[in-house]
Amino acid sequence: MTKSKLIQLxxxxxxxxxxxxxxxxxxxxxxxxxxxxxxYDSLKTFYPDFNDDELTKQILFSNMxxxxxxxxxxxxxxxxxxxxxxKRYLIYENFGKEQISQNRRLLYELRLRxxxxxxxxxxxxxxxxxxxxxxxxxxxxxxxxxxxxxxxAFYSYSDRLSLKRDAEKLMRYQxxxxxxxxxxxxxxxxxxxxxYDINFNFEFMNIxxxxxxxNNLIEPSVLIFYNIFMLRYKNDHTYYDNLLELKxxxxxxxxxxxxxxxxESMDNYCVQKIAEGNLSFYDTLFSLSNDExxxxxxxxxxxxxxxxxxxxxxxxxxxxxxxxxSDFIENYRNSLNNEDSNEIINFxxxxxxxxxxxxKTSLNxxxxxxxxHPLLRFRIRNYTLLNYYELDFHEQAYxxxxxxxxxxxxxxxxxxxxxxxxxAFLSLYQKLLEIKTGNKKIDRDYFKNEIGSKAVFMKEWxxxxxxxx
Length: 469
Description:
Distance between the termini: 68 Å
Number of strands: 0
Strand content: under 5%
Structural class: mainly alpha
């Protein structure tokens, strides 16, 4: 009973939703079976956990029908009906929040009933409400396209001249909405392709030609997504500069979703440049972090992802902004939605202490963290190896290298590209350790070129240590 679909769904209802659902069930407009109302009332005493031992079909049936013999078929029927009603309630509630969709459907009904004056006044009011969007994003174009299509359907019977005049509007809305959707899809695809070793074969549309040949129809939001995509696709700084200019020009008009895409794209570009060996982009990354906080991007919600949180601290530590990093940890630590948030915090302070050259303190903090933590298991080992090197804990380093390689070999879930980068780090780290301990001699310039030519984690640290040899 407690594992039924009905109970699983009702557990998600807030107090207000559960009370409102009761009114919904009782409404004769939606349903007229009093037995279902009785089932709701019987379940009400078990809300919100629905974990009581007395929550059985037999006891519920007895509460509803004290003088009847239990009927499993009838009980299953009533539960299925209440489950059906709970889904209808969610649809009703969701639709109630969509004022624009409601009014567009109203226009459809008014058009069918040939109520022209009411149709036009309702359409004008709806167009104004949609136009209140802060910037013309994908949602704006989609809503305006659907509205204009309804208006054109009205004019097709009553005013052919107005239909011709509004044809360009319809095309403008459709083109801009389509371009944003396809550019965003391509951007997400490229991001996933690199992260998860996805390799779909597809013919890339020449979006640049479409934009250039229809420049009079293209909106700023399309140009933003175009440069977001091209920055990822071409890895060309020209698109970074374009995006930066568009961001600065329209930042106060952009919705939170577009802002997040902009900063994510610029962050990823900087990370790519750092991976290529251009360490000056750490300063750019840190500047973007400050900018994000100032503009409330990705910091305006109640929660932050663990990876996002750690990356911000690591970048600040890399550029020696230790006070900023510590303030960030303290100011936003309660925004971590994780039972293991203390381990995330310990790891972040371990990074800060490592960059401060407090290697023993960093190592002690890392020792407090579960070595098998799903988000930290590789990062912990990386920084532990770095601390071992700096502290001349050579024996521990060799033991960690061996255990690390075995872990990577057995891990079948990690993406191949990431596994290759980890293995490259371990191989180069071992060479560096062997040179330091006198077990190997190698040409320093050759070694630097080898590090620079590979996709490898901790590249900047490896290069720094080679220069110290």
